[in-house]
Each structure stands twice: as structure tokens, then as C-alpha cells.
Write a structure and sequence with these properties.
CATH class of the largest domain in chain A: Mainly Alpha
Largest interface: A-B, 47 and 47 residues
Organism (chains A, B): Paenibacillus hodogayensis
Keywords (chains A, B): DNA-binding
Distance between the termini of chain A: 62 Å
Strand order of the largest sheet of chain A: 1-2
Shape of chain A: elongated
Radius of gyration of chain A: 23 Å
Helix content of chain A: 55-70%
Order of helices and strands of chain A: HHEEHHH
Oligomer: homodimer
Strand content of chain A: under 5%
Structural class of chain A: mainly alpha
Protein name (chains A, B): MerR family transcriptional regulator
Number of strands of chain A: 2
Number of domains of chain A: 2
Chain lengths: 133, 133
DNA sequence: CGTTGACTTAAAGTTTAGTTCAAGGTTTAT
DNA sequence: ATAAACCTTGAACTAAACTTTAAGTCAACG
């Protein structure tokens, strides 16, 4: 069992963010000790990890909440949960594409800078401000 | 030459966002017609595309502004610009990793749902709420 | 015994990146 | 000629996701 501080350190996630998620209903069934302090077990940490993983890839708190609510209703809602996850997976794919394109764009810019610093002025046309300042 | 509406359509980016970027200093040297309306040429569109590409991958307006300001100062600042782009490229790589991990996590969850719906209850232990509701 | 530090809450504040609004100018169509 | 369809500005507004603050409880240390 872990305190919120330990959980925070293990998850690399601020304690008040964990409290915030709890308040938002993203972490059901978090137990308390005699003083009313939250206590987390390994399973709680796994769940929080899942939540932060989804958050980090752009799923909104509202959608996370929806998943939690469906999960609490039991297996009858698995179809709906699956639909949400499949949509999110598509969203992840889209983001991956955007990142790949951006990586290419940055690489090209860096290549142009390299050429300029090597003294290949004929390659400057690829830059914007060096072309029409 | 294009009006802001045409630029907006070509870039798939709201006109007021383009104005906002202009106001923030992200689009230097945008010319105006006799009525004071902005007019964009192909090169302007390319530059805006670059800005939105960087934005879409998490670069802040403040950092974009920095790049623009450095670019306006000429080639002496290429080293600094390169440093910013290299840092951003690392950031992109980090984001790609996060997405890959999330994709895996979602795939696993979906696989668990599949098993449950196929009626393999022994696989339910992989889910959270079905285990400790 | 007092103070240090971790925990609690609710509520207010912050940040970022737009978006919308209000008020107005110009050109084109009917 | 008058309305529709553009464009302009600055300022106010919004939304999401925290983050900070304020006020308080509790246990341990010296």
C-alpha cells in the first residue's frame, strides 16, 4: 500500500493531479486509512497509469470519465468501451502521422541550415526568410 | 496571390487563426492590398504551413515567435535556430514513443475485451474493474 | 508542547491558444 | 441604392486541465 506521495513518485505524476483525477471520478474505489488519507495498491497504480497514458495521448478527461462509468456498469458496456478505444486508436494513428510529417519537415529545415553553414548558398532557396527578407 | 479566405481554405486553418498568428508576429512581411486587406503568396502559405506543422506537434507560440525573430536577424542566428529545431525533434521523438506505448496499451485492452466477449472468462484478470468492482 | 510536514477539502487562479464580438470599411450583385 | 459578402481592428470571452491557495486535521520528532 502506498501514500499519495509514494504513488506520485512511482507514477511521476503530481499528487494534486492524482487528487484531481480522483475528484473527477477517474479513480473509483480508492480506499482511505483511518485518517481519511488515500491509500493506493498496485492495481490502483496500474489504473492511474492507464489513465495518464490515455491522457498523454490526447483523450479528454470527459472521455476517460465515460470509460470509467461504463466500466463500473459491468460487462454489458464492453461494446461501448471498445468503440471508444477503437476511436482513440484511430486518433493515435492520426497523431503518429502528424508527428512523422513534422519530423520530416524539421529534418529538411536542419539540412538546409547545414548547407548554409557549410557555405552552399545555392541551397538557401529552401529557406523562407533568407529568400525574401 | 490569395485573400485570407482562400489561404484559410488552402491551409485548412481558420482565417482568424491566421490573423492571430500574424498579430503574434509569426508571419512577418505579410503584404496588404489597397484596402489594407492581407494578401498571401505561395511562399506565405508555405511558411504558415510550417508554423501550423510545428504547432500541431506541440511547439508553443512563444517558441515559434523566437524562431521567427531569429530568422529575421539573418544567418548569424542559424546556430540558435538549429538548436531549437534539434530540441523540437527530440521532443517529437519522445511523443512518438508515448504514442507507440499508448497504442500498445489500447491494443491490449481491446484484446481483453475480445476475449471477454468471446467468453473466455479466465482472461478477465487483465481488466481492472472486472477484477475488483 | 510546539512545530514540522504530509495529508485533507473547496474554491479560486493560471495558462495557452485560440474564438467570438462589436464596430466599422469596401466592393460586388440585384 | 442597398444589401450581401468580403475584409479590418481590439478587446472580451471561452475551454481544458491543471495549479495554487486557504484553511484545516493528524502523527511524529525534539
Amino acid at each position: 500500500m502506498f501514500t499519495i506521495k509514494e504513488a506520485s513518485e512511482k507514477l511521476n505524476c503530481p499528487a494534486h493531479t492524482i487528487r484531481f483525477y480522483d475528484k473527477e471520478g477517474l479513480l473509483p474505489n480508492i480506499r482511505r486509512d483511518d485518517n481519511g488519507n488515500r491509500i493506493f495498491d498496485k492495481k490502483d497504480l496500474d489504473w492511474i497509469r492507464l489513465m495518464t497514458c490515455f491522457r498523454a495521448t490526447g483523450m479528454s478527461i470527459a472521455d476517460l470519465k465515460k470509460i470509467v462509468e461504463l466500466a463500473l456498469q459491468g460487462e454489458a458496456t464492453i461494446g461501448q468501451r471498445r468503440a471508444i478505444l477503437e476511436a482513440h486508436q484511430e486518433e493515435i494513428k492520426r497523431k503518429q502521422q502528424v508527428l512523422n510529417e513534422a519530423f520530416e519537415a524539421v529534418s529538411q529545415k536542419l539540412e538546409v541550415y547545414n548547407q548554409i553553414q557549410k557555405g552552399n548558398p545555392e541551397d538557401r532557396f529552401l529557406t523562407y526568410f533568407d529568400e525574401r527578407p
